[in-house]
Amino acid sequence: MNFDLTEDQEMMRESFARLLDDKCTPERLRESEKSGFDKEVWAGLAELGAFLLRVPEEQDGLGLGTFDAAVLMEEVGRKLPFGPIAETLLAARLIAMLGTDNAADCLANVVSGGTVASVALHDTASRPSQFVAGGTVAEIVIGRRGDEVVLYEVPSEARPAEKNLASDSLAEVDLASAKSTPLASGPEAAALFEATIEEWKLLTSVALAGLGRQALKMAAEYASERKQFGQLIGQFQAISHPLADRLCEVDGGKLLAWKAMRAIADNETDAAAQVSTCLWWNIDAAGKAVSQSLQTFGGYGLTTEYDIYLYTLRARSWPLVWGDPQLLLGEAATRHYGKTSVYLPDVGDLPIEFDIGEEARNVMAEIDAFMDANVTPEMREKFHYSWEGWVPELHKKLIEAKLMFLSSPELGGRGIGPYAKAAARRTFDRHGYNNPAAGVAEMVGLMISRAGSDELKEEVLSKIMSGDSIASLGYSEPGAGSDVFAAQTRATPDGNGWRIDGTKMFTSGANLSDYVLMLTRTNTEVPKHKGLTMFIVPLKAEGVTIQPVHTFQDERTNITFYDNVKIPDSWRLGEVDGGVRTMSLALELEHGGGFSNPMLHTVEAAEELCSEIDTGMGQKLIETLDAQQRLMKARANVAVSLLFEHRATWAGVEKKPNLAYGPMAKMFSSERFMDDARDLMNLTAPLSLTKRKGAAALINQSYRHAHGTKIYGGTSEVHRSMIAERGLGLPRTRA
């Protein structure tokens, strides 16, 4: 798995970045608005080989792939140089690949920057006059006319300048009055042109991702300097949290574009749908990002004194030359559900890789075989995503097969790598057996192994490792919410041991567990996070009371009371007042997990119901464009959620800087799970209101389940603050 550029690509990116940083100053950008073009910047790009990137080596080009061109386009999005850059480099590729020797001079002029070229995005046979990016300055336009690919030499009078949204060189070009020279004709030529339009979608997607991220960066920098009511406005969650949401969308859009390129390279059957999806997503994400960023500037953002207005206008002007973005979602849906055949570009080599590896595939296959051989119908009936889905006999069998504590050799596991660990979690989830019992048992077991006494290891750890016992977590307290460091449950020295008094809320699994990992207050004279100590407390000890708390999710939790509960000092974990350090001993279990699996199950269930529901108009619901678009939107959310999970795992493996990739994976997926669960329930109503066994029950459950995902494991609000701080550099929003 890899999310990094190669050294050569990083050097290329830096070269383009230096040029654009130097030339695309605020003053020059405003001056360029007068003509919609900057000749000096254009010449600089040509000198660095921008327009040679996709020209094959046999035509004296650089022969690089789509991803390399995308590296340039992300920088274009960051700095907003004027001119049809993506269109020109693609036009150069078409001329090189289809043109005869007569086109050699034309190609030389284009790649040297002497002639600006563009591409007509729609068939010129049916649209002889159409809007063209950079049309007012493009002397050459490459278009498709039926099955011909045509080079149009456009006179200036056929491409008149007119006022437009972004004051760029957009023009409605009359190609019928241009001199046309066929470059090639027939199915292969038409296919190459169609593939070029798909590549334009990919490059435009990445440019929009670069634009959106830069807009958010500008907003974050402003919010880190501007004060209101005596505070930096970036400290206000009303400012930082929406920016965090937009960052997730923009990053997700970039990853979708990368994934679409990878899908093309790997010949995935759904690659064409992914191309349409990623442009639709990035148009929406960039639009929201610039609007939220401008809002951060307040009234100043409306003025032309601040650059944010340039991003706000360009976020619309670049992609809308194609047409209504909603049509792209329809196109994606038709390609996915209608299995439409589309010609795609030869993207060449790219370093981005989402392969989980052989170890992960082997573990997944072993888990599949184990579950098929050992799970009975009675067990499966009990499966649930909550603690109540724990099946003791299956738990013990998994431990015997060394499939339980997979990443923890000290607990008898195999010590598999993070990619395989994440894949195993998703595989159990696919079988419906991914309840918290195993994960918490592993975490508690590691803490005892690393910070527990010999007595605790003999009495408790041995039972956890054998599968005879599990443990729950005693962190949350009434009134404390997500702030576990506000714990008030007291541990008071008592002879050679301790007395525990207090209440813990949401002690899920306490009714099934033998032990609870307890976070207690042992010192009130120091900052709250320093006066905490951890213990293992037997739940059958005298003074422990477990009271059920039922949820509408079919998920039981508990409130637990501790009244004069006595435990020996040997059941303490770590140093007195060193609870935070003890908690960190199992941090490697952090996997940046999200909810892509239950999200996918919900989409698949909705697809199943849509295939059964009659519209009353002679067709099934799945055959309607509206249903397909809504399902496709949900699939896009699943894809981004999984990509975020992959990125978080990769960042941990590669020891990358902590840019809140884990919180992004969790927060984004939980929020989109909620959105999609609601919408797919609407789509399949009223059948989805029932709990009929199968797809209807799953959609019903997902709607209820999704509400909890935004709360447990850290609320969305806490994760938004982490994303804002680590991902955007905003000031801390929590006391």
UniProtKB/TrEMBL annotation:
Domain Acyl-CoA dehydrogenase/oxidase C-terminal residue range list: 201-323, 615-727
Domain of life: Bacteria
Cofactor dependence: FAD
Pfam family, one: Acyl-CoA_dh_1
Key words of the record: FAD, Flavoprotein
The keyword DNA-binding appears for this protein: no
Residue ranges of every copy of the Acyl-CoA dehydrogenase/oxidase N-terminal domain listed in the record: 6-102, 358-468
Domain Acyl-CoA oxidase/dehydrogenase middle: 473-551
An MF annotation (GO) of this entry: acyl-CoA dehydrogenase activity
SUPFAM superfamilies: Acyl-CoA dehydrogenase C-terminal domain-like, Acyl-CoA dehydrogenase NM domain-like
Homology family: Belongs to the acyl-CoA dehydrogenase family.
Protein's name in the database: Acyl-CoA dehydrogenase
Native organism: Pontixanthobacter aquaemixtae
